[in-house]
């Protein structure tokens, strides 16, 4: 189960009421910073922009590839550990706007995590240290540390123990 907080709305759908939930000016600022960052090939500059202006937590030597799309409304709810790779065109969402409610949840990505291109990370999930997320995966629940996951819906392909055996690092 994802860790999200639900906020009910009445009347028009929650996205129609967006500026009751987040400042218009915050969204404009975030949009500009994210668009600069998405096209910036200089990783230290991109990480500095996101840490400074979006208040994202990004560990040392972490690489957000070209076109990665952090949550535009609540990027401060995203935390990425050290030495991780977030693949091309991946989306990191910390919000969901639905008909009768909206939901917010932290996204926590551990250390030395590899997320393949074109993946979508939904709000309220934790991806454990040294996990691998295959390209195109929709991460809708927690990913255990050291595991390999893939698909839509996401499923565990190899556990940490199976991954260690495959790499020849069995700890018997």
Automatic annotation (TrEMBL):
UniProt-listed Gene3D superfamilies: Hexapeptide repeat proteins (2.160.10.10)
Keyword DNA damage part of the UniProt annotation: no
InterPro entries reported in the protein's UniProt record: Hexapep, Hexapep_transf_CS, Trans_hexapeptide_repeat, Trimer_LpxA-like_sf
Keywords from the named record: Repeat, Transferase
Signal peptide: none
CDD domains (UniProt xref): LbH_MAT_like
Name of the molecule in the record: Acetyltransferase-like isoleucine patch superfamily enzyme
Organism encoding this protein: Thermaerobacillus caldiproteolyticus
């Amino acid at each position: 189960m994802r860790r999200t907080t639900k906020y009910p709305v009445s009347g028009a759908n929650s996205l129609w009421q967006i500026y009751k939930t987040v400042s218009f000016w915050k969204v404009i600022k975030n949009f500009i910073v994210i668009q600069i960052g998405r096209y910036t090939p200089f990783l230290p500059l991109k990480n500095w922009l996101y840490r400074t202006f979006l208040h994202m937590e990004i560990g040392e030597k972490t690489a957000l590839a070209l076109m990665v799309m952090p949550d535009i409304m609540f990027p401060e709810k995203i935390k990425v550990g050290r030495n991780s790779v977030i693949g091309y065109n991946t989306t990191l969402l910390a919000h969901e706007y639905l008909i009768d409610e909206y939901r917010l949840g932290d996204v926590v990505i551990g250390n030395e995590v590899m997320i393949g291109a074109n993946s979508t990370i939904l709000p309220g999930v934790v991806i454990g240290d040294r996990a691998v997320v295959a390209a195109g995966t929709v991460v809708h629940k927690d990913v255990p540390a050291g595991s390999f996951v893939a698909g839509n819906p996401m499923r565990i392909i190899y556990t940490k123990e199976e991954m260690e055996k495959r790499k020849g690092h069995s700890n018997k």
